[in-house]
Write a structure and sequence with these properties.
Blueprint (H helix, E strand, L loop, with lengths): L1 E11 L9 E12 L4 E9 L5 E3 L9 E3 L1 E11 L2 E11 L21 E9 L4 E8 L25 E4 L2
Antiparallel strand pairs: 1-7, 1-10, 2-3, 2-8, 3-4, 4-5, 6-7, 8-9
Length: 164
Amino acid sequence: MLRTAEITAELSGLEDPHHRFYWRPRLEFSVDCFICERTGRTTLFEHEAERALCSGSRSGFQRHHTAGRIAAFDTTSGREREAVRALVDFWWAPFTDTRDGREAAAPTSRPWVRLHFGYMCPEADESGAGSIQTNLVRPYHPTCKHCDRRLGVDGETPSVRLLT
């Protein structure tokens, strides 16, 4: 069955507007994969891609394509903040994990997400990239890899909410 998850996050305290921060339209999201029948697989989603890429298992079944996509990707800019909202569609079917016997769930029993961002450093005149994810210690302060200036504050864990 088709499931949809809403993923939202925000970076605040963007004190240095010269770095031109932006959210990249790709994310990694843990889902229970009915193809390799493993729970909690890290799956890569890219906006406008027709399918997602499952990490597979550490032994045996390797990386493979799976039915999933970013259905919507929106960003919002405000005073010293940048927010992102993604709707992720993925197919899910019940199964028992082939390795540890856990029952699959949608979303997985411990949802995890990594969101990617980019920026342009005015001092180095070069671009940079980074990410935030649900299991970081907060507040997290991403910094520019060129000039070491703080880009902002990741004060809250990204939200994962199952819509359908």
